[in-house]
Structures are given as C-alpha cells and as structure tokens.
C-alpha cells in the first residue's frame, strides 16, 4: 500500500527570475502514483527550482513539506492507477499484508469498497469523467526531512469541480500553501549599501551608509495552480523595513547603537553623505575604532523584509518577516584625521 501512496517529487524548474512558468508533471513510477500539480511561479523567483535567498526570522516557520493537489481526470486516473496496481500485484513475492492491502486498494477503486473514512468508487468513477479530478500527494523537493516530505500518503481521492477537498485533507493545496511556496522560492535583490567613504575609511572617522529608494523597493513572487475546475493563486510581497549593519569587528560603533537603521518616509534608508558633514553623526553608519591592518573587515548589511500575501477569494495574511544580506570588504586605515 505504501508503494501506491508514497508521493513523488514535484518537478519545479522556474525558467528565469521573471515570469517563470513551471508545470509539475504527474504520473506513476517505482514510488507510486503522484499528482500533476502544475504550479506556475512568476515574478522574482529563484532559478532552477531551488529555494530563494530569503530567510525567515521565525525559526519555527517552514514551507509545507508536502501537499495534496489535482492529479488526473477519472479516465486517465483509471489508466495510470490500474496499471500501477497490476504491476505491484505481479511483483514476485507480493503476498501477505502488502498483497492484501493492494487487493483492497484495487477493490476500493473498482468495486466501491469502502476504506474507513473513504467511500469507494465504481470503475474508477469514470462515469463522472470531466466533472472533477482525483487528487494525490506531492512532495516538496526542497524539504530536507524525508519523513515530513513523504507524509502525504493518503490514497488519491475524488474532488468534484468547484468543490473544496474533504476537510480531513488538511494538506490539500490552498492559496495559503501557494503563498508559502512563493515565499520559499522568492529571490530578493542583493543588499549593496552605499558607503562614504566607499571601501577605504579611517579609524575614528564616521562612515555614512544608505540605501536609495530606487534600489530598495518591494519584491513580489506569485504561485498559481490552474487545472480544470480548480484555479487558485497567491502573491507573496516582501517590503523592506530596516537595515542591520554589523561591522565585522567588536572594535566599532554603529549608528544608531543597535545597528538597526529604519526606513525613512520616502522609503529610503539612512542619509547620503554630502560635503560638510564629515564631523556630523550619520543617522545610519559605522565608526571603526581600530585599523584592519593588512586585511579588511567584513561589513554585513542585512535587510529585514516584511512579508505579506494575498490570494484567490480575497484571502491574505502576514507571513514571518524575512532577511537577506551580504558582505562588503572594508579597509580601515590608521589615520586619526583627514580632510574630505
């Protein structure tokens, strides 16, 4: 029975960072029969089906490890499922409990045999072909925990067009699940902070840091599922809210003291340096107290993004904030004062 119900990987391969279009194919293999999820990703998403670069600030939040999604209409499902069951039944040594379970599964789809909580079907429900679809489990290929990834193991079940899946299938795909998947694939822009001085600064000289509005805008990623009788989508939006500066050494002071530079009214962060401000305290910046010697300090600039989503039917909510940052090499020279 496990051979029938074990979900297979969803084939996720966004083609590019803008307008990616992915169709997750379904069918049957040595693992079992699995869903043709046809999840399409668009917007700012990672290439090649991998996870994006955003990290959730909530260590307890994770994308869904698996879900149930539309698979095939009744006639196509009969072709795939019956072929798979017969192949398993004809496997040498298939007997005992496993053989009995396969026999029950065959009766479940062919002879209206009820499994607890799951009413049986007559001839794979082909009389209702075109009026709905069988749904099956899909693995999230980016979930590292094998047990979680393979936990959507219920037998494929029928859902009429326009109807919601039965409530016992809590992992049935929804706009909220699509929003979480869009979050997982979201690709945020690099955090290249403008500095003055740019890469070489002096001991005890404030270094100004800022991000212009033009390079500090919201990012969106969309996940959509479109199959006959079932069309849902969700768009996840990341809006930058703050910049965290970490000097790369304890011998430094940050402005403000927390190192957390909040967003301005015009959606920029910090304030550009201008001539005459050399002795002023920057609203966002760093002062190094010791030279970097023959090396450099790794200034880490991390943006916190506020994540929300909206989806089909007016659904929507907040998701945990995300972060993404990178390092910049800073050379600090042992000169106490300088004119600039």
Q: How would you briefly describe this protein structure?
A:
This protein has 340 residues and is of the alpha+beta class.
Can you walk through the features of this model?
- With 340 residues, the chain is of the alpha+beta class.
- 15% of the residues lie in helices and 34% in strands.
- The protein has 5 helices and 19 strands.
- It has helices at 2-5, 74-89, 96-110, 146-149, 175-185, and strands at 8-9, 27-28, 33-34, 39-43, 55-56, 66-72, 132-139, 157-160, 194-196, 200-202, 207-211, 219-227, 230-246, 252-255, 260-262, 269-270, 285-288, 297-311, 316-333.
- The strands form 4 sheets. Strands 4, 5, 10, 12, 13, 15, 18 and 19 form an 8-stranded mixed sheet that branches.
- Strand 12 (219-227) and strand 13 form a beta hairpin.
- Helix 2 (74-89) packs antiparallel against helix 3.
- The radius of gyration is 27 Å and the shape is elongated.
- The N and C termini lie far apart (75 Å).
């Amino acid at each position: 029975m496990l051979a029938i119900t074990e979900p297979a990987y969803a084939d996720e391969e966004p083609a590019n960072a803008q307008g990616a279009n992915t169709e997750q194919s379904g069918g049957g293999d040595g693992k079992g029969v699995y869903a043709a999820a046809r999840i399409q990703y668009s917007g700012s998403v990672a290439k090649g089906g991998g996870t994006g670069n955003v990290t959730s600030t909530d260590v307890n939040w994770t994308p869904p490890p698996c879900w149930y999604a539309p698979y095939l209409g009744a006639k196509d499902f009969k072709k795939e499922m019956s072929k798979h069951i017969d192949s398993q039944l004809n496997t040498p040594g298939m007997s005992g409990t496993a053989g009995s379970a396969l026999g029950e599964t065959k009766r479940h789809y062919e002879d209206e045999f009820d499994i607890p909580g799951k009413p049986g079907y007559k001839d794979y429900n082909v009389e209702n072909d075109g009026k709905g679809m069988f749904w099956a489990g899909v693995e999230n290929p980016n979930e590292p925990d094998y047990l979680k990834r393979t936990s959507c193991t219920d037998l494929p079940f029928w859902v009429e067009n326009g109807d919601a899946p039965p409530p016992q299938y809590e992992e049935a795909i929804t706009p909220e699940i699509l929003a979480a998947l869009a979050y997982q694939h979201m690709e945020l822009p690099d955090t290249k902070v403008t500095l003055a001085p740019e890469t070489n600064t002096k001991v005890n000289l404030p270094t100004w840091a800022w991000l212009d509005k033009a390079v500090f805008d919201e990012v969106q990623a969309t996940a959509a599922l479109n199959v006959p009788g079932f069309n849902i989508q969700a768009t996840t939006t990341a809006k930058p809210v703050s910049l965290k500066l970490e000097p790369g050494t304890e011998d430094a002071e940050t402005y403000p003291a927390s190192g957390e530079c909040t967003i301005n009214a015009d959606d920029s962060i910090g304030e550009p340096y201008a001539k005459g401000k050399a002795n002023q305290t920057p609203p966002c910046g760093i002062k190094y107290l010791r030279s970097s010697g023959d090396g450099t300090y790794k200034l880490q600039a991390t943006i916190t993004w506020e994540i929300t989503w909206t989806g089909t039917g007016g659904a929507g909510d907040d998701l945990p904030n995300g972060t993404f940052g990178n390092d910049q090499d800073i050379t600090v020279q042992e000169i106490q004062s300088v004119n600039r």
